[in-house]
Amino acid sequence: MSPIPIKKIPIDLTKDTPSKVTAEELKGELNAIGLRCKETRIEKLEKYIEETVSTFADGNTQGFGIFKYNSPDVAEFYEKGYTVKSISELAPLTETIHSNWKPTDTAPYMTDLVAVANPKHFDYLLANYTGFAGKKSSEQYTKNNTTVDAIKEQFTKIALNISSTLVNDLDKDQMEAVFNKTIAPVDPSNENYDSGTQNRNILLVKGYNESKKECDAIGVINVEYRLQISDYKEKKDKHKTYTLDVTVRTSLYTDTSKLEAEVTYLQNIFKNTMFFDSAIPFNPEVKIYDALPPEIKDTFIHSLPLEQTKNNIISCMVLYAPDLENIGCIDNRNSEGQAQYSKTITSGFTFTFGQKISAGLKYSAGTLLTKAEFSASIEISFTEQWNKSQSETITFSVPKNAVAYLYQGYLQCAVLEFNTDTFKYSYKETGRFLSNIIKTTPKPIDTKPITMMNTGRIYAEDKPDELPLWESL
Prior knowledge:
This protein is α+β, with helices and mostly antiparallel strands. The protein has helices at 23-32, 42-54, 74-80, 110-117, 119-128, 148-164, 172-178, 256-270, 297-301, and strands spanning 9-10, 13-15, 61-68, 93-94, 101-103, 135-144, 193-194, 198-206, 214-215, 217-229, 241-253, 285-286, 288-289, 304-305, 313-332, 339-349, 363-371, 374-382, 390-398, 402-419, 424-441, 451-455, 471-472. The longest helix is centred in the first third of the chain and has 17 residues, at 148-164.
């Protein structure tokens, strides 16, 4: 009986020569951060490099590029609430550091791998995605009397952290290439050296067959580190403190469908805020459709994320067909005094499906709608608070000889599931979402279907003029 053949991953790479850490470049970097002692002489550094590299394990996992992020302009995104760039345009830029292999123009997976490796994305997958196989290692190293030997130790510690997250060690030449230009430039106005948080992504390939253009596995390592040295400008005999924080995130794939499923999940969670690492609290947009949309990926990633409860199922809530429902009326036409009306309003989902809105992020949905001469805006912020229905009592008054009608906004909704084994999308349950948006009108609203004027973020200039709350007769 023939053995079952191992599934291979197609990828087109060309041979490259990994970059080396040179004594000349390292000397310049060390001098720039205040280390100018005799230990930074070229012959000494050559020995240090040789000793450090000799400690690296020599594994069979290789690299096909070292990259950094190319994020879009944060200020522009914050002003507009979206980016016109596609996710493929947010792919990383290549640094001038070489690996064992280099990708051709047609090499796939690169943007998907870096999307997973983004620290915010990776940590969210680790905490929330059932079945995510990524590994993370974080350490802090502190040492007094900083010397060149401490920098040597930095390289060794990062290498150990990388190895701890891999089943098979990284190729020794590729590991050395990781340490090119790891010492960030210094601000000469500062008394202390602080590299700031540095990030680099090493794309991985295992068992690559150049003639067949296929491999056993692909993956990515994200190395996030920060080096701080106190009083780096002072003379070498000055007591200094060296602190290195390093976090390594690694994910390896023998099946690219797993990678694609994770990226689909991230697109649904972060939407077009992917690749942004900013302190600005972004509010991802959820689309409201005029009718139940088709069961496709575009619908999935523009809908409201739900918590994952099954290993192979990712779910979202599709919002569509907004409308207004009459919940009360005050007819005060035959009265000489003011009439007051109180009503308890319940808002939230009208059905229970055993799933919840994903925790930790805030989503917004908005649309303008119109019926005959009546217009209204619906804007909703979705957070995990909507996992439970909410009730509040509202009170409004109508003057004498007037009539007013009270309406509550609602949305139709449906659970859309994505099966990560079959890559099929399917609707499972439907219901309604009763919003906390209440409108009063002087006349009953017609029963004709609602017309949506536009979807997405609503700006002040788009909003219709408000109608009076009641009609005097």
